[in-house]
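Task: encode each sequence below as C-alpha cells.

Item 1
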Amino acid sequence: MSKAAVPVTGATTIIAGATGKLGQLIVRRLAALKQPVRILTRRPDAARRLFGESVQIAVGDFGDRTSLDTAVRGAGRLLLLSPISARLVTDQISAADAALAAGVRRIVKISGSDWTIDPPGHSISGDAHAAVERHLNSLALDTVSLRPNAWMQVSLANAVRQAIATDTVAAANPDAGVGYIDARDIADVAVDQLLADTVTGRTLNLTGPDIVSARQLADLLSTTLKRRFAVVEKPPLAASGDADFEHRAIAQFAKLIAAGRAATTTDVVKSLLGRPPRSVAAFISEHAAAEAALSE
C-alpha cells in the first residue's frame, strides 16, 4: 500500500472481472490480507474452483440491474474490470450506478492505456474507457482509473512465445519502444488504491521501469537463452471491415504501438508501492525458466 496510506479494512470489496488474469491476482491479494471479497460473475462454478470458500460469490450480469443491485448491496468498494467489447461503456456505467445507489464508497477502475485514451479518436477501446472515466468523475464518491501500459502477461508474453518458437522477433516497427508493465504490479496498485485511506488522483498511468523495443527484446532473449534471435519487420496487424469490436481494437493498438505511442514510463508504481516495478528482463528470465521446465 501507499507508504503514507491508512488501510480501509473490514468493508467488502466487490470484484467485477475476477476470473480473468488480472482479476485473479487482485482477488488473491485481497484474500491474503484477510479482506472480505465478493465476486460478481456469470460463472459461479468456475469462480468457486478458482477461489474455493475464501470469497463470496454473487451471480450476476452487467446487463441485469437487479442482479447488480443484489451483488453490490453492503459493499464498500468496487473493482471495475471487464473485457474489451462493444458493451464496455454500458456495462461499466451500469455497475458504477448500481454501486453508487448501494452506498459503495470507492470505485477503482482498470482502464485503457493512457496512449489509447489521450488524444481521443484513435482507439475505439480508449474512447470507450474515456467515456466511463468521465462518468465516474461525475459521481459523488471516490474514484480512480488505473491506466496500465501494455501488459507483459499479454502482449509481451505472446511476443516472447512466438520468438522462442521461431528464433525471430517480429514487429511492424522494430525501433518502437513499449513501457511494458507486469500484471502483478497492476494488481498491487489496484489493491493499494482499494484499501488506502484516500485515492491518489483521478487517473494513474502505470508503466514498467524502462522502454523496450523489438530490437532490444531480441537482445534480451539472446542473452537469456544463449542463442541468437533475429528481428524481422512485418506489416501492422489489420482488421477486416466486418471484424468485431475486440479485433478492431487490437488492430488499433498495434498501429499506435508501431507509431511509438506506448514508449513511455512513469514513476507511479514506485511512488505508490515504495519499490520499482518489475522489469522486462526479469519477466523474460521467469518466462524462459518456465519454458525450460515444461520441456524437461
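Item 2
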Amino acid sequence: MAIQPIRLFGDPVLRTPAEPVVDFDKELRKLVKDLTDTMMDAPGAGLAAPQIGVGLRVFTYYVDEQLGHVVNPSLDLSDELDEEGEEGCLSFPGLTYPTPRAIRAVAKGFDMHGEPVTLEGTELMARCFQHETDHLDGVLFIDRMDLKQRKLAMKAIREAEWSGLAAPVVKVSPHTTGGRAL
C-alpha cells in the first residue's frame, strides 16, 4: 500500500487547475494505486490527484461498492434540477454541508491504460463525479454553497483543529511605533 498524506484546505495545490495526463505509463498506474489506497484508507467516496499534491487530471471513486478511476475527465451534466445534499471532503476533515449538484452526470475520459471510458452516475455517484472533477479544476465544494452555508463553513474551518486559518493572536503593547509592537 502507498497511502499518501491528504492535503487540507489552505494548501495552494487545491486551488490550482490540474494538467492533463499525457503519458499513460507506469507512473500513472502508480498514481492511480496511491489514490485508491489513500481513498480507501481515509475512507472516502472519491479522491483527486491534487488532494495528494499531484497536479494531474486523475480521480478515483468508491461509491455503492463500485471502485474505479478516471483520467482526464470531462463531465456532461443533466438538465434536471440541482439537488442539494450533504457533502463533505477529505480535504475538510469532519465537515459536511448542503451543496447543490446535478442529480445525473456522465464522466468521459480514460482509464490508466489510455482506453476510453464513459461512466454514468446518479445521486451519490453523480455528486462524486462533480466533486472530484471540481478538484481537478481548482474548485472546492465550499465554492458551490450558497452564501449563508459558505459563511457557516468558513467559520467551522477557522475553528477546526486541523485548520491553519485561525486568526493569529497578536498581543499589542502600549509601546508601539508605526503600528508594530516593540
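Check on item 2: The chain has a mean pLDDT of 88. The beta strands are 46-48, 58-63, 66-77, 82-88, 96-102, 104-110, 116-122, 176-177, 180-181.
End of task.
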